[in-house]
Amino acid sequence: MTTFRPPYPLLWDSPIAQRGSPGIGSHGSYNPTGRLYFGMSTNFSNPSSAFLIHSFGMDAGVPGRAGLTLVITPIVDYSGFFYSQGSFASALTSAIIKVYVEETDESGNFVRGIDGNPEVILRQDPAWFYGSQTWTPLERGLTLAQPGIPVQANHSYRVYIDLHGEIRAAGYGGFGGSYSHADCQVRVIEMDATYVRL
User: Fold this and answer.
1) What does the pLDDT read at residue 64?
2) pLDDT in tens, 129-174
């Protein structure tokens, strides 16, 4: 078994997919403490949306023989502040932790990507008649149970812990409208990667 702790050897921050000029606050990663974070809000005046991914990655090595399964066990903390309001419109606010495994062959060619079980911190997309709501999820020392992944001998495997953030709302440019905000922090405390027999 290999146990990874901060700082993690691999980092990846996606370009932010956005439209309608949403407000993008502080976001990214702080590797010394294993922290992934973001803050963003929709545009109050017009339709807008944003989506981003921040990740830590680890090299899980090369299984030397056939008949093995890769078992991944991340432990995380998370907290967040999410808000949605609207009148005759919907507004999405969301944060999800995902485990992603990348497999390459002996020559370094990409073979496949495997998605693990997601941990939904929060995903709310209410269709408002009129109203608002705030959510403040909080977890400490949460183990993210993942299914075992059958592996190929002499292939390489990298494991990524991803934080996905997303917002979408109609703004208030006409009759009714909506607004959303998402602010989230995840601390990846550690991640175990073990090859075991099927």
Assistant:
1) 87
2) 999 999 999 999 999 989 999 999 999 999 999 999 999 999 998 7
Cα 78 from Cα 37, distance rounded (Å): 10
In angstroms, the first-to-last Cα distance of the chain is 16
Please state the rounded mean pLDDT for residues 107-132.
Answer: 95
